[in-house]
Each structure stands twice: as C-alpha cells, then as structure tokens.
Write a structure and sequence with these properties.
The complex is a heterodimer of chains A (462) and B (420). With 462 residues, chain A is an alpha+beta fold. In chain A, 35% of the residues lie in helices and 21% in strands. Among the domains of chain A are: 119 residues, Uridine Diphospho-n-acetylenolpyruvylglucosamine Reductase, domain 3, CATH 3.30.465; 109 residues, 2-Layer Sandwich (Alpha-Beta Plaits); 85 residues, Alpha-Beta Plaits (2-Layer Sandwich). Chain A is built from 16 helices and 19 strands. In chain A, helix 8 crosses helix 10. Chain A is globular, with a radius of gyration of 23 Å. Chain B is of the alpha/beta class and 420 residues long. Among the domains of chain B are: 84 residues, no CATH class; 114 residues, 3-Layer(aba) Sandwich (Rossmann fold), CATH 3.40.50. In chain B, 43% of the residues lie in helices and 9% in strands. Chain B has 21 helices and 11 strands. In chain B, helix 3 packs antiparallel against helix 4 and helix 11 packs across helix 12. The chains are: A alpha+beta (462), B alpha/beta (420). At the A-B interface, helix 2, strand 2 and helix 12 of A face strand 1, helix 3 and helix 4 of B.
Chain lengths: 462, 420
C-alpha cells in the first residue's frame, strides 16, 4: 500500500473524534474516489471527513489552521478541471451531508440552502411553487448548489438569465481558523461595503468553506419552447444567430452544434437532422404565453430569412427535453473520437465568435487533430474539445501545440480562457496569459487575507 | 505524492466486457439508490468503477479484500447502466467478479441456507434448490408466515378474462406467487381466462441466482424454462413480476440457450408483462383512496420511461395514482439484503422517509422482491401488496370458487366488452 497518509496518529484521532463512525475514512480503498473528479486527475487524500453540521466545519478549520493541514472542500466532484483533486495531500471535506433546504421564502423570492443540495432537485421543488432558479449547468441534475457556487457554474440559460453568481445574494462560510462569516443579505439590492459574496462565488474553495447560501429566485415563466434549426453551412448558422439578436430577441439559450459535433452525437444516438445539415442551432424561449408567441414569430422570421434546411419546434417539456438531450450527449459522445481530451471553454465577445470558430478549426486542421467546437453561442462561450490518444506520441504533441495556439488566438480576439469551467488544476498555468502581474498580485493578497496559511484547496485556480 | 493521470493504463483493463472506460462524469450519482440514501461516494457506481480500476486493474491500492468487500455493495438495480453515457454496466461487471471470487459461492449457499426463511421465496426451491440443498423443515417453517393472504378491500374491479390475447398464452408466476402468494397466480390466471389450468412447473427465472454469482444453477434454471416453453408449443408467456420479466427477456442475450436466432427472437417476443395485455378501460376504480405505485428497478421502460404496470394503474386510477420519489428503491438488492443488511435497511428507510404523500396507506408494485422487502420495512399503517391485490371481481361476481364469474350476464357492465 502506498504510504500516503500525512497525518499523525494524534491528528487522525482528532478527526475520528470530530467525525465519528463512517463520517471519517482513511482506508485508501474507500477514500480513493474522493481523490478524483471529472477531470480524471487523481491524488489520494490523507483522509475524508463528512460533516453533518456547520459546527463541525468550524472545529475542523480551527484545527486545520493550527496544524497547517490542507483542506479540500468537495461536493459531487463533477468539475472537469481538477478543482477537487487533493494534490499534495490533505483532508477532503465532503459537504454532501449538509443537504438541507432551510427555507423557501415566496414573499422575498429567496431561498436558504446548505451546499450539498442537488441543483436539479432544488429546481424541481421550486417548480411546484411556481418559482425559478435559472442557472443550469449541464450537470444540474447531479451536481450541487454548493459546487455550482464554488465554481460559479454557468449553463445554457446564461444568455438571458446570467450565471450562478447572479443568483447568490449571501453566503455563510467558515474561514480557515474557524471563524464564521456572513456576506451579503437576503435583499435583492445591497451596496454596503465590498461585495464579498461575488468574490466568494467562483473562488473554487480557495477562500472559505460554504455552509449556507442565500439564493435569489424568480417567478417561474409559465410558458417555454425550444427550436432546433439546421443549416447547410456554419456561416448560415452564425448569420441566423446574429439575425435573432438583431430582431431584438434575447433567447433563454442559444446553442451551436457544427457538423463534426453532429456526426459525433450521431454515433451515439439516431439523429433527427437531415444529412445535409452542417450546423445546428438550439434555441430556448420562455415567458408569458402571449409574449412567447410573438417572440417565436419574430425568431422564426429571423431564422427563416437565412434559409434553414430543417426546423422543429417543441412546446411540451418532455418534447423539449428530447431535443436538449442531443446537446447533453456531446461530452460523452466526444470520447468516440479519441480516448483523451483537452477540454476548453474559452469565451469570445459575440462579434468575434465566427472568426474564433473559423480560427480554431483551422488550428485543428493545421495540427491534424480532431477539434470539436460547440456550445453556448449566445454568450460566446465556445466549448473546444481537442480529442487525441495519449498513447500516440504524434497526437499528444499535436494536441498540446494546437491547445497552445487556440488559447493565444482567443486572447488575441479579446476573449477569455474559461467562461465557466474555471482554471482549477489543469489550466492554472495559463492564467498569466490573460491576467496581468498587478492583478495577480491582488489575487495573492486577497487569498492571504482569507487564508493566511494557505490551507484552503491549495494550488488551484489562480 | 505526484498527481497523475489515470487514463493511460485503463486501456490495459482486464475487465472482459470491453466496456468504454468510465469518464467519471457523475451522471450515475443521480440514480443510484445506495448513493442517494447514504451520500457516500465510495458506494456510488462512479466510486466503485474508480476503485475497480485503481485497485484491481492497476494494483495501486493495497488491500484487495477491502476493495472486494466494497465492490460487493451494489443493489444490482442497474439504474446506473441506464444513464451511463459510456454504455457501461457496472453491476454486471461486479456480478462476474463475485462469481470469480474464491469462496464466494460457498458463502452464498451457507447464508441462504441459514436464512432460508427470508430468501426462500426468491428462488425456485421446488425445482432447483430444495431437493439437493435444503432440509425441508427449515424452509417450510418460513413459508407459513408468508402464505397468509392479507385481508384488504379491493380498490378496482375488473372482468375475468380481461387480458387481450393474441394467441396461446401461459402464465409465468415466479417463485413468490407460486410458492408463497398463490392468490396472485389465481388472480392472474383469472385475468388470462385460464383459472382452472394447473400451475406449470417452471423453474426459478434465474435472476437472484445470477445476481449472487451462481452462474451454473442460473443456466440450469434457464434451460428448464426454455424446455418447458418448447414443450408447450412456444406460447406467449405472461409475467407478473418485473424482475422475472427482466430475467426471462435476458435469456435472449445468453449464447447457446436457443437453437437459433429465430427461436431466440420468438422468445423475446413471447415474454411480456400481464399488465401489457390489459386495458385500463376494462376496469373501474371503486375506492377513492390514493395508491402509491413503486416502480421496480427492473421494470421495462416504455413510453417516456413509464413501465407497463405503471401505465395500466395510472390509466385505471387516474388522480388516485402517484409514484414514489426519484431514486426510491426498496433496498432488497438481491444478496445485499444478506451481505450488508444495514445498508439495505438504510435504502429502505430513505424510501419511507421520501414517500411523496404522507396520507398514503396503500403501496403497490409489480415485483415480488419489492413487495416482500417494502412490506417488511413499511410503517404500521401502510399496506404493501402486489398491484394484483387491488383487484376485486366485477360487481355481483366473485373471483374464485364458484363459476359465477364465468357468466358475463351477472357482471354489472364495468367492462367495455361486457357492454358489447
């Protein structure tokens, strides 16, 4: 057995006392899954603990700071950048036992939740009360609100509704050292002091451990619909997208699936689009029925002006879900093109998306590697998957070179390295290409202010 | 300790399925009842897939015994296989591992024999176990308590011979109906219009045997059943247990059981749930109380994920019908009930804590195992039965005994066909 445990007997005893019974694990066989996430990177944790009460987190962080033991917050480990991997060793803290919905306030349009609540379950519960929490990362059905807040998860509805950060009004968290902080409020407006809430959202577990989130809710739009539109060329699809915005329409979501992506998905399921489809748009609209009807008329007029080869409209939630399933299948289907993947979610200004996609494809062709570009066309967040086989040295080298060139291209066009995945462990080294030294210096100072001993998820994000 | 990527050596995997590798996406976390009830990632399909890779294939973790013990903790419901984007079927892999584990089979036999009272109804003891393995006394002692027919009011009425048959059809009641709940068999045969026929000498469907890693006895059971089906002239086979139904359908995937492709196809078409042969329009609801339907893990998924039992009951009960929460599982999990009773109990506890309507007093399902497991864990004021137990005869008729139900004229016109 590898000698992986950096804890002394006394330290293990402390953790076992604070987390009795099965809430403490250190057998490598049981603990190993807590050392990985959807990035598929791995480092074995020294121990795993499962708090059931915020008070246990306070005691844990007081002790961890005293002992200088690294602490790695974890929810369901669905991030793709190694954000949960306990690199260098330490204690993984699973927040899945903190999974209570503490309050849904229909007058204030707010909810208070613990971090382990599953986003999809929360949204389903709200729907029964005609309330709405819009952020919808692709993992919403199996990821948590705490994980979504730690990573500032985006999703397809970001075009109209924004991202997780726009829906977190306040946070209760524990600082390294054991102090509780309460940021923000349950009001929808608040400008007193610095906005620590927005700073904590997306901080990837590097500043504090979240124990409670106050979330902003909206009334549930009573009607919604989805359009799936196929075009003979990518250029037509991009022109159609621009035409929709120019018609004054802001759809809930606007997703792009170019030819390579469509072919890839068609390897996993039977495709509804005709053979001559070279690019597909998926659009979602919502609102009051009468407004939605008008919006759909305008949208269809804009799309049809570009001459689509295929158009389906779904108004029934089950039918809509069937159309969106093709979008959700891209990630798993991509592994049919190569066993390994460099996954980027670069984001471009809307006006540069066409140029960016063309450039990225060109880079792929130049290096003879499969590159899939798809995703959130509406907000410029283009997912870029470079597929390769790690055992093939030529492919590995080509993928790395293509990756490098794509990041440069994106930054040259005024884009950013990541729209929603974060930099985690896998992309942290690229930060300096986008963020200057003075700003990075501020990151370091902020980190020090929250976490003077550097024990919170060390080595991640920035 | 160096962080490293574990993708590379996966390709040298020894797992024979040639499955695509687990990408650790986490989709299985949404559906695994064991994970939902415990919040323990090491018990999730993703956790076990990762452990399998680390411990057994890469040999990176030290204690194979601990790893194997953990890998054995699976309900076998295969919910994860239904959502896995890589098309992996982890429970199947785990079953094979169990079967290959030295000492496993003798352990299973020992526990089954000592706990015969519990496991007895799940196996075709009459045909595949009892003569060779068990002393009659121990098994029959348990039988008595299971064989008491509960007294309960009917919730729906229907006609005998309600099933719409397209040719000769025989009933595969399954071990529980055959040996412990004979009235299920009678009700089902009444619906099929074959109440007088003797119960056919089917063997165990083989599911529990297969899940326990007892490959040999399972194949014997499959062969016995197929031989009987041939003898009967390859009729349609109606099932009343979702797990039996899944097991029987699974015969078609087993190489060497059928003489050729055509016979295998014929078998696949022959096996169907009784509920799929019934029309909700031939039944009426006579009791307003709400009924909670528990969908068995092994139920077939048809239109939009609904299963045939669910579609029938939803059609008959309308607003009086509701289903259990997402991820709800009875907790039986084949041998998990024996190998890790505390985990099985936690899954069951989660089930009752997450019943969507606290006023529910009647829970029905279409799997024999689920009926037994849920009935054993249900609160005192809740009755759990097979959905067949909801059925009473048409008005003015009795189900069994006298042949009154044989005369449609005596029935008060609840059936569309009776009106014709």
């Amino acid at each position: 057995m590898p000698d992986s445990n950096g804890l002394t007997g006394r330290q293990q005893f402390f953790l076992q006392s604070l987390f009795p019974g099965e809430d403490y694990l250190d057998a490598p066989e049981r603990a190993c899954v807590y050392g990985t996430d959807a990035s598929r990177l791995f480092a074995l944790p020294w121990a795993v603990v499962r708090p059931r009460e915020p008070g246990q987190v306070r005691e844990l962080l007081r002790w961890a700071q005293q002992e200088r033991i690294p602490v790695f917050p974890r929810a369901r480990g669905t991030n793709v950048v190694g954000g949960c991997v306990p690199q260098g060793g330490g204690v993984v803290v699973s927040c899945l036992g903190l999974d209570r919905i503490l309050e849904i306030n229909e007058e204030d349009f707010t909810a208070q939740v613990e971090p382990g609540v599953v986003t999809g379950d929360f949204q389903a519960m709200l729907r029964n009360r005609a309330l709405y929490y819009p952020p919808d990362p692709a993992s919403a059905r199996f990821s948590t609100l705490g994980g979504n807040a730690a990573t500032c998860a985006g999703g397809m509805r970001a075009v109209k509704y924004g991202v997780t950060r726009d829906y977190v009004l306040g946070i209760e968290a524990v600082l390294p050292g054991g102090e509780f902080i309460h940021t923000g409020a349950r009001t929808h407006k608040n400008v007193a002091g610095l906005d620590l809430t927005r700073l904590l959202v997306g901080s990837a577990g590097t500043l504090a451990f979240f124990t409670k989130l106050t979330l902003k809710l909206l009334p549930l739009p009573p009607a919604q619909s989805t359009l799936m539109v196929g075009f003979g060329s990518l250029e037509q699809a991009l022109a159609a997208s621009a035409a929709v915005f120019q018609a004054g329409i802001l759809p809930v979501a606007m997703e792009l699936m170019p030819r390579e992506t469509l072919d890839c998905v068609a390897r996993v399921v039977a495709a509804p689009w005709p053979q001559n489809t070279n690019a597909l748009l998926l659009l979602k609209h919502d609102g009051r029925p009468e407004g939605l009807r008008e919006e759909l008329v305008l949208t269809r007029r804009a799309l049809e002006g570009v001459g689509p080869c295929f158009l389906v409209e779904a108004r029934d939630p089950a039918e809509e879900d069937r159309l969106w399933e093709y979008r959700r299948l891209i990630n798993p289907a991509s592994f049919r093109l190569g066993t390994d993947k460099i996954s980027e979610d670069v984001t471009l200004p809307r006006s540069k998306v066409a140029e960016g996609i063309a450039g990225i494809r060109e880079v792929g062709r130049g290096h003879e590697v499969s590159v899939l570009t798809f995703g959130h066309l509406g907000d410029g967040n283009i997912h870029t998957n470079i597929m390769f086989d790690r055992d093939d040295q030529r492919q590995s080298r080509a993928a790395a070179a293509a990756h490098d060139q794509i990041l440069d291209l994106v930054l040259r066009l005024g884009g950013v390295l990541s729209g929603e995945h974060g930099l985690g462990l896998t992309k942290r080294k690229y930060l300096e290409r986008q963020v200057g030294p003075v700003e990075r210096g501020l990151f370091v100072l902020i980190k020090k202010a929250f976490d003077p001993c550097g024990i919170m998820n060390p080595g991640k994000a920035y | 300790m160096a962080t490293h990527d574990n993708q590379k050596s996966r390709r040298a995997g020894t797992v024979a399925d040639k499955e695509r590798e687990c990408i650790l996406c986490g989709r299985c976390l949404e559906v695994c009842p064991l994970f939902i009830a415990t919040h323990q990632e090491e018990l999730s399909p993703r956790g076990k897939a990762f452990l399998l890779d680390k411990a057994l294939e890469q040999g990176e973790l030290g204690d194979p015994a601990t790893a194997r013990q953990l890998l054995g903790l699976c309900l076998g419901c295969e919910q994860c296989a239904q959502v896995c984007p890589q098309g992996r079927n982890l429970p199947r892999t785990l079953r094979r591992l169990k079967a290959e584990q030295p000492g496993w089979q003798s352990w299973v036999w020992r526990v089954w024999i000592s706990q015969a009272r519990w496991i007895w109804p799940h196996l075709g003891l009459g045909t595949c176990l009892l003569p060779q393995r068990l002393a009659p006394g121990s098994a029959f002692a348990g039988l008595k308590s299971l064989a008491d027919r509960p007294r309960m009011s009917a919730v729906i009425r229907g006609l005998p011979r309600a099933a719409r048959l397209q040719g000769p059809t025989v009933l595969f009641p399954g071990c529980v109906a055959r040996w412990a709940k004979p009235w299920w068999t009678q009700t089902a045969q009444t619906l099929l219009g074959s109440a007088d026929e003797v119960v056919l000498d089917w063997s165990c469907c083989g599911f529990t045997l297969g899940q326990a890693g007892l490959t040999g006895p399972r194949l014997d059971a499959c062969r016995t059943n197929i031989a009987l089906w041939r003898l009967l002239g390859r009729p349609a086979v109606a099932t009343i247990c979702a797990t039996c139904d899944a097991a029987l359908r699974g015969y078609a995937d087993e190489p060497g059981l059928f003489v050729d492709e055509a016979e295998s196809r014929l078998w696949s078409q022959a096996v169907r749930p009784l509920s799929a042969l019934l029309d909700p329009g031939d039944f009426v609801r006579i009791d307003e109380s709400r009924v909670l339907y528990h969908r068995p893990c092994h139920a077939q998924r048809f239109d939009r994920g609904h299963d045939p039992d669910e579609m029938l009951l939803r059609g008959i009960l309308g607003s009086g019908f509701c289903t259990s929460a997402k991820g709800a599982c009875c907790g039986l999990g084949g041998v998990l009930r024996l190998s890790a009773p505390e985990l099985s109990a936690r899954v069951g506890k989660w089930y009752w804590e997450n019943v969507p309507d606290p006023e529910i007093r009647r829970v029905v399902t279409g799997c024999s195992g689920c009926v037994l497991q849920l009935a054993a864990s249900a609160p005192d004021n809740v009755v759990v039965t097979h959905w067949l137990d909801l059925l009473g005869p048409a008005e003015g008729c009795v189900w069994f005994g006298e042949r009154v139900w044989d005369s449609p004229g005596l029935c008060a016109g609840v059936s569309s066909r009776a009106k014709k």
